[in-house]
Amino acid sequence: MIKLVLFDIDGTLVRTGGAGVKAFAKAFSSEFGVHDGTEKLKFAGRTDVSLVREFFGHNNIAQTPLNFERFFETYLFWLRQIITQCNGGPVPGVPEYYEALTKAPEPPLIGLLTGNIKAGAEVKLRHYGWWEKFAFGAFADDHEQRDEIAAVALRRGAEILGRPIDGQETLVIGDTPLDIRCGRAIGARVLAVATGGATFDELAAHHPDYLAQDLTQANVAETLS
Question: Which of 25, 116, 169, 178 has its CA 20 to 30 A from that of 17?
Answer without folding.
Answer: 178
